[in-house]
Amino acid sequence: MTQLFENIKGDKTIWAIIAILAIFSFLPVYSASTNLVYVAGKGSTFGYLFKHAMLLLVGFGIVFAIHKVPYRYFSGLSVIMLPVVVVLLIVTLTQGTVISGANASRWIRIPFVGVGFQTSTMAAVVLMIYISRYLARSKDKKIELKESLLSLWLPVGVILALILPANFSTTAIVFTMVMLLVFLGGYPFKYILLILGIGVLALSIFILTARAFPDTMKNSRISTWSNRIENYMSGNSEDNYQAEKAKIAIASGEIYGKGPGKSVQKNFLPQSSSDFIYAIIGEEFGIVGAILIILLYLGLLFRIVIIATKTKTIFGTLLVLGVGLPIVFQALINMAVAVGLFPVTGQPLPLISTGGTSIWMTCFAIGIILSVSAANKKDVIPSVKDEFENPLDILHEAVG
Question: What DSSP string runs through 211-237?
């Protein structure tokens, strides 16, 4: 055990935060899984708990492995992985999975493992790394819109267009994070406004086309998105079943909660172990437990910002912000939905909700952050010239 701790590098506070979140997650996941077992009639509570434990174990293995990799390697790796994720997104989208008449092609099944892999989560992380690379390489030159359209915005547009038909909330979150990252990276503000306008226009055209030609765009999720927003705005309890049950769960928890495993609303609240697990936390651990979870994510945000400010390279700074901020942003979105501040989005709570891909890609991103942090602490900060100029350099490094 001592040898293991000696091999753990990087920000110790982040290690502590993710360990606390992961260990704590066993309580609400085990409790909420009874909904799937006794209400939906699927599996066993021990089975869901064991699966969650294995996913977390693999996830922490990913964190440990990735944080040992010098972060400059991810620059070239993002260029190699970009076409790979595009292909994966195309394969995922063309599966034709439909749930309740709407496009639900979000996952591909990993052979022999039996775990669904949500390709959009991988695409989001790879895209943020790629954008960090582009902005770092452009820091000493004037950025022209014409040049950046092909090398920066084309990959962004393709990936978002492939995610959008089946997952609007993820598309919106990724687009928001991209806009924030390019702003922090010094991309001209007038071009950011132009790209923002183009994005809104493209989304409007997509929605109008889907509504005007429903036969051409069968199984579109447009109606699902609009219904969620309309139901949220109406405030009708019957139209907001999930949101109402979530608020009841949080309100009934009061200050100290009903205690672990004693949630009542988990038996009525769909997705209680994933999208609405924060409501179960509020019911079982009260306002005290709910606030502590918020503080843990805010602590993670604080450490991400600290690491970014201490990093001596532009790529390292943008890399930490690019992969770190979406984790906290997603957590805040999940919690906001549970307390009724946002319409239902379907976003899990990082490191707490069940789900393989979300856990693994969150761990991958955290591993990158810890890699940058470890480099900061060693004072072995690679210069911009040390970053791979060609994505094939990573292969040469591996074999040479």
Answer: HH-TTTTTT-SHHHHHHHHHHHHH--T
